[in-house]
C-alpha cells in the first residue's frame, strides 16, 4: 500500500501528461514558456482572484510574498509553531523574527483568540497556515490584522482546493501562497508553487521578484531571486487540473468515510468546521502512544507519517528565540500524538477498510 499513490493518478491522465510535456519539448521554451501564463490564468480563476504568479516552490512563494509586502530585518511575523519548517524558515531568512502563537487543538490551525496578544509595534505580517487541508479561521485573523494595519499571508501549501465559508483557499487574504510539491492535493512532478492576490501592484512586485527583480530584460528595479516555475512543471499541472475537481471531491468523500469507520475507536479524527471543506492533504489522527502505534501499523504493512513531530519553537534553529517547552501547550501535545494515514483520491474502499482494521487492531494492542 502506498501512502500517496501518484502512480494511480498518472495512469488515469497519462495521455494528457505526455501530450503536454511533448508540446513543451517541441517549442523548447523551458523557462517562462506559454504554459506558465495559461496555468496562472486557470489557477487565478479557480481561486477567484485576479492574479496568480507561478513560482519555484511553496517555500519561495512565502519568501516572495513577504519581500513584496516589505517585511525586513528586525520585523516580527506572527505564525503557528505547528507546521513545516518552511513557514518559520522564510521569516527568519528574510531577517525577521517568527513569533509563534499556539493552535486550536481541534483544527490544529493557529488560534485566533490568542493572536491579538502577540501583536506588537514591530509586527509586519501574520502568516496563518491552513494545515492538513483545512483553512484557518481567516475572517477572525483578517479582522485582527485590519485593526493593527498588518497584512495576512495565507500559507495554503496544504489547502489548495479547500473552501472557507464558501470562498476558495488562496483567495482569503491579501496574498495566498501554495505548493505544488508532488504529494500536495495539486502536485507537479517536482517542486513548484504559486502566489495569489487581487492587488495589481502587489502582483507586479511579485512577478518582478520571482525573476531577479526585473521589470524588463536586464533592467532590475528591486532585489529579487530566481523563483520562476519551470514550464515542464506548468505542463504537468495543466494536465492534472483536468481531474482536480473530481480529486477534491474524492478527497472529501474518503476523509468523511475514514471518520465514519473510525468512530468509537480510541483516537481523535480530524475536526472540520461546518463552514469549511477540507481537501485532506493529510488524514491525521491523534492517538495515545503515537510512536508505538506507528510501529505496529508498519508491522501490518500500513505506512504512516508524522506531520509534525517537533513544533517550530522547539526546533534547534529557533530554540533561542521561540517560547520554551511547556508554553505552547496545544501545539506540543499535538506533536506528541498526531499520525497521518494513507490518503489520496484513488484510495479504494477495500484499502480504506484495511487501514481502518489495522488502526483498530493497533489501538487495541496498545490498551
What does this structure look like?
The chain is of the alpha/beta class. It folds into 2 domains: 6-101 and 109-241, 3-Layer(aba) Sandwich (Aspartate Aminotransferase, domain 2); 244-365, Aspartate Aminotransferase, domain 1 (Alpha-Beta Complex), CATH 3.90.1150. It is built from 11 helices and 14 strands.
Q: Give the structural class.
A: alpha/beta
How is the CATH topology of the largest domain named? Aspartate Aminotransferase, domain 2
Rg from C-alpha positions? 20 Å
State the separation between the terminal residues, measured CA to CA: 26 Å
Could you report the average pLDDT, rounded to the nearest whole number?
Answer: 97
Percentage of residues in strands = 5-15%
Order of helices and strands: HHEHEHEEHEEEEEHEEHHEEHHEH
Number of helices: 11
Unreliable residue stretches: none
Main β-sheet: number of strands, strand sense, barrel status? Answer: 4 strands, mixed
CATH architecture of the largest domain: 3-Layer(aba) Sandwich
Number of strands: 14
Q: What strand line-up does the widest sheet have?
A: 1-9-8-5
Question: What is the 3D shape?
Answer: globular
Q: Can you give the helix content as a percent range?
A: 25-40%
- Within CATH, the superfamily of the largest domain carries the name Type I PLP-dependent aspartate aminotransferase-like (Major domain)
Number of domains: 2
What's the level 1 CATH class of the largest domain?
A: Alpha Beta
Amino acid at each position: 500500500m502506498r501512502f500517496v499513490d501518484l502512480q494511480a493518478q498518472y495512469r488515469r491522465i497519462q495521455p494528457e501528461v505526455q501530450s503536454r510535456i511533448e508540446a513543451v519539448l517541441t517549442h523548447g521554451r523551458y523557462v517562462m514558456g506559454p504554459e506558465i501564463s495559461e496555468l496562472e490564468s486557470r489557477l487565478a480563476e479557480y481561486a477567484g482572484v485576479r492574479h496568480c504568479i507561478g513560482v519555484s516552490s511553496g517555500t519561495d512563494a512565502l519568501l516572495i510574498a513577504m519581500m513584496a509586502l516589505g517585511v525586513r530585518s528586525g520585523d516580527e511575523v506572527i505564525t503557528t509553531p505547528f507546521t513545516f519548517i518552511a513557514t518559520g524558515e522564510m521569516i527568519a531568512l528574510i531577517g525577521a523574527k517568527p513569533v509563534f502563537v499556539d493552535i486550536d487543538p481541534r483544527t490544529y490551525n493557529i488560534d485566533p483568540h490568542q493572536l491579538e496578544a502577540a501583536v506588537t509595534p514591530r509586527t509586519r505580517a501574520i502568516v496563518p497556515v491552513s494545515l492538513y487541508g483545512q483553512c484557518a479561521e481567516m475572517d477572525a485573523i483578517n479582522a485582527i490584522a485590519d485593526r493593527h494595519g498588518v497584512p495576512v499571508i495565507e500559507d495554503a501549501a496544504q489547502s489548495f482546493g479547500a473552501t472557507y465559508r464558501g470562498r476558495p483557499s488562496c483567495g482569503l487574504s491579501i496574498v495566498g501562497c501554495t505548493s505544488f510539491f508532488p504529494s500536495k492535493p495539486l502536485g507537479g512532478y517536482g517542486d513548484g508553487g504559486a502566489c495569489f492576490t487581487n492587488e495589481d501592484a502587489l502582483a507586479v512586485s511579485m512577478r518582478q521578484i520571482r525573476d531577479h527583480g526585473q521589470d524588463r530584460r536586464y533592467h532590475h528595479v528591486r532585489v529579487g531571486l530566481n523563483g520562476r516555475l519551470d514550464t515542464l512543471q506548468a505542463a504537468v499541472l495543466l494536465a492534472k487540473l483536468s481531474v482536480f475537481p473530481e480529486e477534491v471531491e474524492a478527497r472529501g468523500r474518503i476523509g468523511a468515510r475514514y471518520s465514519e469507520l473510525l468512530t468509537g475507536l480510541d483516537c481523535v479524527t480530524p475536526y472540520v468546521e461546518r463552514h469549511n471543506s477540507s481537501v485532506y492533504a493529510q488524514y491525521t489522527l491523534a492517538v495515545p502512544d503515537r510512536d508505538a502505534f506507528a510501529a505496529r501499523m508498519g508491522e501490518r504493512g500500513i505506512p504512516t507519517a508524522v506531520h509534525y513531530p517537533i513544533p517550530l519553537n522547539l526546533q534547534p534553529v529557533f530554540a533561542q528565540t521561540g517560547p520554551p517547552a511547556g508554553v505552547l501547550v496545544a501545539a506540543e501535545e499535538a506533536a506528541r500524538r498526531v499520525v497521518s494515514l494513507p490518503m489520496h483520491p484513488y484510495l479504494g474502499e477495500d484499502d480504506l477498510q484495511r487501514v481502518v482494521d489495522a488502526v483498530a487492531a493497533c489501538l487495541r494492542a496498545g490498551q
